[in-house]
Design goal:
It contains 16 helices and 25 strands. By secondary structure, it is of the alpha+beta class. α10 packs across α16, α11 packs across α12 and α13 crosses α15.
Length: about 725
């Protein structure tokens, strides 16, 4: 068996770069596959170059088809021998640029196109599909995404679905992907638990727990308390028995030698920290009294279970700041030795060490001698041996942890094979509250009886008291009302992988394995399951109050002259917080500049943001716009109402025309109230009129009038028309 390291992937990965492993002589199947694609999709005349490949899973043959144009655009598709189109992709590079714009195709038109192609290709299953509304697009998106999941007797089966993306510039189908399993046996739902029974089972068998969680802000690590799930999202409640079930992952592997090289490359970068030059390292050593490289190397070689004999050579070493705390420094040392004189391969040991106290933070090693050997240790013996080593390395920290059952069990090609490695995880317990981000984890070699991988994440923040935390029963009420348990069909992947799984074309979906369907109760996963321990409010993964990302709608714009434009821009992620838009109200400088930030190609943290929540966000917004030259420091006045001439000034600066606009004497302003325009802004107003960003109130510009919120949206809309 080839050496593998288990790697968890999502449901499917589609790429165009790799060609299939299996190839066969062309036959009538290729012709049929080409005709099938052309029956539903147009292959433009410019795509003259054609290539193909074919793969096989059991009796199922899948043709991969490729068309290329001279400008680098590509069309690819996969069709099986039943004439089922598995996927289609069209990347027309000639239509892409880096300019934000409003697109001619709106979401309703795009959705109609998506449904048309789905129904055309799949008439026999169309009625069993359920449209799932996804997050609304933002201006930077080039496509609309639409997803349709499979249902059976009205019960969703999310792992079978059809997704379509429509190019917003051209209206063309950019991608079509069908993930579908045939000949499935759907369990009966006649004897399922009712919702009250399911909720009780969830609380007893899965449930939430109070945890500490970290949030990094301004280079500081802050801790907040929240109720979070005890188990990850691969656990469910069996709808028939009420038991906890783990439905597994897809597992794939990669060769150790490749991993070895990538690891060496990664060491040069550090563990996500800031690299120091030799001169800076020397300075840090003098100031902080860090351990030297020689001291760390000597300590590591003295640890017996690492087995660093004289044949291991220190290949590289580096010092960087810890990701968790800028005050901590980590030494990273990479040792390697040639496996044999005749071999080109190397064994490696990679170790990271706390540069202040010499404590081992992590280590990993190759394991190239466990193939074709029987494991000597079972899971209990492996855990016992692992804990001996952990106690030797970090006894004080280990005493503060609690063992957590892990679901990272290996799935092997031969389901009869005993596991050769085990994973164990120990989570820090702070006064009865778990802190999952501080943990000790190991992978144990059950063949040779040694740890292959050890890692500790540990830092010393301030932990808030949880004395006044909301009782968990109140949180469960919130959980079931906000997320809700519902019936779903889910694939149980706790079975063996068919050997053909490793021989697939990269364009094909993951294979049907000897998996079975289960009927389960599952939570709505569209929201994060994180509840503030003191308010019960749902939190995002950033630790801040969660806000559902949906298209902004308003209840006070019906019949307003700017109604359609307000709706159009909201559909593209350019909006102010509702539900009231207050179109005739004067707009504040900070709110207009927030709209401006939404049309920039920089400052990604403001994409989709419709309101400035606090002083920190105000400062961040102005820092961004001052850096980009759109606002000057002395112009900063967040709460002030904006005049028409000031708003034009900011938009012309977005266009980078301000240097020309400041040549005021060269401009001929035709507005009758030009004398009321500030002399230094004449050029800005004239350029804005020439570009049709403003037209004026008849023949008057009225520069000193306060800009309304509706007119602010119209200005942004006019700006986007010139792009």
């Amino acid at each position: 068996m080839i050496r593998k390291i288990a790697l968890i992937l999502a449901v499917a990965v589609f790429t165009v770069a790799c060609m299939p492993i299996y190839t066969f002589a062309a036959d009538e199947g290729l012709e049929a596959a080409i005709k099938t694609v052309k029956q539903y999709f147009t292959i433009p005349d410019g795509f003259k170059e054609f290539d193909y490949g074919v793969g096989s899973i059991g009796d199922r043959r899948i043709w991969d088809l490729y068309w290329y144009s001279t400008d680098g655009s590509t069309i690819s598709a996969s069709v099986d021998n039943n004439g089922d189109i598995i996927n289609y992709s069209f990347y027309d590079y000639s239509v892409y640029d880096n300019i934000k714009r409003l697109f001619k195709i709106n979401r309703q038109e795009a959705k109609a196109k998506a449904e048309e192609i789905v129904k055309k290709i799949n008439p026999e299953i169309y009625d069993s599909l359920k449209f799932i509304d996804t997050n609304p697009p933002v201006l930077s998106d080039d496509v609309y995404y639409f997803n349709y999941i499979r249902t059976y007797n009205g019960i969703p089966f999310p792992q079978n679905n059809i997704s379509v993306s429509i190019n917003r510039r051209t209206g063309e189908i950019q991608q079509y992907i069908k993930q579908w399993d045939n000949d499935l046996i759907f369990p009966s739902f006649e004897k399922v638990l009712n919702i009250e029974e399911a909720q009780k089972a969830y609380i007893e068998k899965l449930g939430l727990r109070l945890t500490y969680n970290s949030l990094v802000s301004d280079d500081k690590t802050e801790i907040y308390a929240a109720y979070t799930p005890k188990y990850n999202s691969n656990y469910y409640i069996d709808a028939l028995t009420g038991e906890k079930v783990f439905l597994g992952y897809y597992y794939y592997g990669f060769d150790d030698a490749v991993y070895n090289e990538k690891l060496k490359d990664a060491i040069a970068v550090g563990e996500g920290g800031i690299e120091l030059s030799p001169q800076e390292i020397e300075a840090v050593n003098e100031v902080s009294k860090l351990l030297t490289q020689e001291e760390v190397e000597k300590k590591i070689k003295g640890i017996k279970f690492l087995e660093l004999d004289e044949n291991y050579i220190l290949s590289s070493a580096g010092l960087s700041r810890s990701w968790a705390s800028k005050d901590d420094f980590i030494w990273r040392l990479y040792f390697e030795k040639r496996i044999s004189e005749a071999s080109k391969g190397f064994d490696y040991v990679y170790v990271t060490v706390d540069a202040k106290n010499g404590e081992i933070r992590s280590f990993s090693r190759t394991y190239n001698d466990i193939d074709d050997k029987e494991p000597k240790f079972d899971i209990n013996e492996s855990r016992k041996e692992s804990e001996k080593i952990i106690k030797e390395l970090v006894p004080e920290k280990f005493a503060q942890t609690e063992y957590q059952e892990t679901d990272d069990y290996r799935i092997f090609l031969d389901e009869k094979e005993k596991p050769k490695t085990y994973s164990f995880n120990y989570v820090r317990n702070v006064n009865g509250v778990l802190f999952p981000e501080n943990n000790i984890s190991v992978i144990f070699d059950a063949v040779n009886g040694r740890i292959l991988n050890f890692n500790i994440q540990w830092f010393e923040p301030v932990f808030p008291s949880v004395e006044n935390a909301i009782p968990i029963d109140k949180i469960y009420e919130k959980l079931f009302s906000e997320m809700g348990l519902s019936l779903q069909y889910r694939m149980d992947y706790n079975t063996s992988i068919n050997s053909d799984a490793l021989k697939l074309s990269s364009l094909q979906p993951l294979p049907e394995r000897n998996a079975k369907l289960r009927l389960v109760y599952a939570l709505d996963e569209s929201k994060p399951i994180i509840f503030d321990a003191f308010t019960g409010e749902i939190l995002g993964y950033d630790g801040k109050p969660y806000k559902e990302n949906k298209m902004q709608e308003y209840n006070d714009i019906s019949g307003h002259y700017a109604e359609e434009v307000i709706k159009l821009l909201a559909e593209n992620g350019i909006a102010l917080e509702g539900p009231e838009f207050r179109p005739n109200e004067e707009i504040k400088q900070k709110d207009f500049l927030l709209l401006v930030s939404q049309i920039l190609n920089v400052g990604y943290r403001f994409y989709g943001k419709t309101a400035i929540k606090d002083d920190k966000e105000v400062e961040d917004l102005y820092l961004l716009l001052i850096r980009e030259g759109i606002v000057k420091q002395d112009e900063k006045d967040p709460e002030a109402s904006l005049t028409r001439e000031e708003s034009v000034k900011f938009l012309i600066r977005v266009l980078k025309y301000d240097k020309v606009a400041e040549l005021g004497d060269i401009f001929n302003c035709t507005f009758k109230d030009k004398d009321e325009i500030s002399p230094n802004l004449i050029g800005y107003v004239v350029i804005a009129k020439g570009l049709k960003i403003v037209s004026g109130d008849g023949e008057y510009f009225r520069p000193k009038n306060k800009l309304s919120r509706a007119d602010a949206i119209l200005l942004i809309y006019n700006y986007l028309q010139i792009q």
